[in-house]
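Contributing new records

If you add data, match the layout below exactly. Sequence lines come first and carry their own label; structure lines follow with theirs. Keep one chain per record. Anything else will be rejected by the validation script.
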Amino acid sequence: MSNTKMKLTGVTTLIVDDDRYGVAILMQILRGFGLETPVIVDSGAAAQALLENHCYDLFICEAELPDISGADLVRWIRRLKTPVRFMPILVLTGYSNTSNVVALRDSGAHTVVKKPPSPQILFDHIEWCAKPPRPFVETDNYVGPDRRFKSLGPPNGGEGRRETDLSAEIGDAVEPNLSQAEIDAMVRPTKVFTI
């Protein structure tokens, strides 16, 4: 954990999970970070109803909900035409195989965390929410935060091939064939609050 003490006091949070035991564990960890009053719902439909009229600072969602997949819920959020679409989204999953994590990432989630998260891992992923934001990308097939976060520069350390190539400060796109360690550190959320 970093030397900075996480203060989530005042951070509005929506948690979507139908596993009461899992939510109880998650809440114990979040209370340790100063988060006292999140809104908790147990279905995608309940989350959608809340998000129609309110934007939260942080959204934490289970990957498998009783009425909709977490990936479908994230895609729905990202295609809204309100500020809600930019909200940092952390998805929790008990199934952290490569295809599941890539599907969640490709839906527009900022980050995917294996359940049950340790306080250290949860802290690290929430802390990314307080870092400078990544650009938001909107294409026909993807809406969400830019998935590029490595600072590798142009291929072979040379100049870019086109005028539109990204500089070394932005980095190269995440490759589709990733190791589990790279998947675990996949995507970093945007800034919505400070620590």
